Write the structure tokens for this entry.
Amino acid sequence: MENKKFVESANEKCTGCDRCMKRCPTEAIRIKDGHAYILSERCVGCGECVRVCPNGAKIEYYDDVKDIGKYNYNIALVSPSIFGQFNNLRDIDILLTAIKHLGFDEICEVSIGAEILSDAYSHLIDKLKKPIISSACPAIRNLIMMKYETLVDNISPLYQPEEVVAKLAIEKAKKTLDLRRGDIGVFLITQCEANVIEMKRNAADIIDKVIAFKDIYFSLLAEMKKIDDSDKERLSKANWAGIISGSNTGEALKLFSDNMLTASGIENCLSILNELERGSFLSNVDFIELYACTTGCTGGAANMENRFLARTRLRQLKSEIPRRKKTYHFSSFSAFMHEPYKVKNVYALSDDREEALELSMKMHEIYSRLPKKDCGNCGAPSCRAFAEDVVKGFKRKCDFIKGD
Amino acid sequence: MTSIKQSYIVDGNDFISCGHASEAVKRTLKELGMPSDLIRRVAIAMYEGEINMVIHAEGGVADVEIFSDGVKIYLRDHGKGIADIEQAMQEGFSTATDDIRELGFGAGMGLPNMKKYADEMEIDTEIGVGTTVYLGFKVR
């Protein structure tokens, strides 16, 4: 799965316009022979190219909905951002019951994971490097690992909420139902391609399938209409704090209220990471929560509703959510910690440093002759990327220089 | 030995865009596939150097030479010079104005941090003439 193309451009729909290429935060897209082409190892799954494409040519990989129900015991992990996708949804249990009817044996709310992580942060606050960068958004985490080496140690080693609930659900099913891991299918229902990439690469042991919310939306609508009070199950266990984590007001609100910074939208996140890397405002902030999608997970590319409306709806649910007793208590959170994150350099010109040095010199020589307009007409997102491509052996032609 | 030579003008009036030189050097080091530890050390130390030139010397020039196993950086300015190098190297000592501190700079960590992250450091300074700080980094 490591080298899988998670986001692909469909040639039959792609007109070769360069909107996606110019929008990509990691310079992962080129235009070749009139079509967009994605360099998979640079893709963080932020969804920018998907949203900006006027022709719907960007295809994000998700698992097939037909896989639902194929295991002996099927568990659905439901992202809270989905709660904001329906008009007049007053009762989350109707939605959760409908999801269950699609073929699941158990429903787990990702919101519970967010609540557990909030507890984890209050336990670990003095042990983590400040400012702590939340690990909640996998696109941001991958972006930092690729582009911001000085900040990698600041990424919280704690799991994403999805991973926390997956792990707990598997343990519970094994223990109470005497199941083996192979009998259990853990399905994450999400709006986020970055989650797909992350789970397939690094959490395949606890999450088996990742299903796009958009792929079950219409069956859900139909199912929800059928549910009345008699067959509605009481499935929701999360508190408001966990549920609102589906939008960018976040997991740590209570704990860090006075000295936290939250932002969403890839451009905003990039500007904050740039400033952070230069050392500004480090001393003023203890916790930083960044979401690649504007409004946070409600803005995920595989959601259906307008992201701002979805956020408003999520907030409107507040009065409907009762205060509930926590169903979990942990004295240690080491079970929910990753190994520290490592820098992932996807920009090296060669694995051999001597050769890379030669190529880099050539690249800078080429770059010095380019117009530095970053117009994108050549099919590379910037003049620098043009020079990079040329030394890597791709043919490129710049409209502004003669010859070559 | 083959090397890449780069030269950057550090604009003395520009707090906002300060850091462009270290940013560009960082990108080159990434292209070379340098170990991330080295990239971090160079990025942090060089940025401190740039900031110093802006705060204390109205800018200057950063000359960078990149080898396959290390980096040499010369930060040259024509500022007022450093009166007492030993004092300047102490953590927390700074001659920056209150206005500069208000912006979050001038905490007196510039030179100490540069020393901490570089493998070699030399300061050549003359009052009224200027300062050259040499930073050397080796792949560890």
Summary: Chain A touches chain B through 29 residues (CB under 8 Å). The mean pLDDT of chain A is 91. Residues 65-336 of chain A form one domain.
